[in-house]
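Final report, section 2: Outcomes. Of the targets proposed, GntR family transcriptional regulator is the one most frequently requested by collaborating groups, and we therefore present its record in full.
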Amino acid sequence: MQKIISLSIREQIYNGVKEQILKNVYKPYTLLQIDHLAENFGVSATPVREALVRLESDGLVTLIPNRGAQVTGICDNDIENIWEMRRLLEPFAAHLSLRLITDKELDDLESKIKNLKVNPFDHDLYIETDKCLHSLFFSHLSNDLLIEAIKKVHEMSDRLRYFAEESGVEMHDKIIEDVIHEHLTILAMIRTRDPERISAPLYTHLMNGERRALEARAKSSKTHSEN
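The predicted structure is given below as tokens.
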């Protein structure tokens, strides 16, 4: 990590460590030592401790007195809770945003999804299309609390994605094909501007997302147990 040169030291440490956890650089159960982090960031121990306290409130670490913190693990219950929250929040946000999403946004996203269909193993494009689709449901909202709640569960979803990839669970062609089909179906329903027609495909997509995440975790657990 580069030495921080900024007035917002605490915020940058918090964001930096959080990003490393979400991207699975700091893997589940990794011990984050205060002295080591302070040395990496080129700061004293105090802002590191404060950052770790915030990360514990996010559910990403567990504080260990006089040592630092341990990155939290990922279990089936975490996956189920995250997708339950997404099923509660995203359909509601979609209903609010349906008439605010522009045709240009839909056209641009549809072009990306069709490009992904031609290049199904372009990982960066896959991530981009997924984020673009789901951000449509909150990017036009004025309710900051709702926006922050959705962003938080999306961050946790991203952590699960990186965890699965780092654990050697590949996105095989059937999964990618299914996700593309689900995304195009949702996109078509958004174009109708009918709240009743968006609910079912979005709910189904989120249910399938939970199932895929649970299957990925099961495969990664099996892989680790065999090694």
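The chain is about 70% helix and 5% strand.
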